[in-house]
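Forgive a beginner's question, but might I ask you for the amino acids of a protein and the tokens describing how it folds?
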Amino acid sequence: MSGAGKSTVARVFAENGFAVVDCDECAREAATRRDFLGEISRRFSPEVIDPNGRLDRRKTAALIFAEAENKARYERIIYPYITHIIIEKVRAARGDVLLDAPTLFEARLDWLCDGIVSVCADREACARRICARDGLTPEQAQARLSAQHDAAFFRERSDRCIENNGSREELAAAAAQAAAALKGRK
């Protein structure tokens, strides 16, 4: 869930010896691959590719968020590319690995995990953090949160849930405790 504190938790896991695979970064990488660009152009529209041969993110976003089916179709196309990149990065990593994966369940990547840690916070706290971080209005932040799963969804599907309704120090301590508990677990 956006604004819950995933980035802070990922940083603490990295400080505790985990290799962190940033799945958003993998998605950005997937969107540059020639095979993906060809497929997205064929299956959506050549107009989503800019004159330099790159994905036009603005046009793509307008297209995929115009209709729920377009978004689902886009995800069916890009998720296999993202998954391939993630698996490559996990295989190349040494030791314990944390997938920083905001869409772990939507991408059906939970099968890669020996344990799942979610970060949750009250909706109001998330909205405040999103506004501060992204410069959004409260209404825009609430709309973003409404398009995502709620905290109960993540709590039900996780082995451990870090609650982030306190200070940054409390979040870091909870993340360090989770990292210690999971270190070396297979």
User: Anything to note?
Assistant: DSSP finds nine helices and four strands in the chain. The longest strand covers residues 19-22.
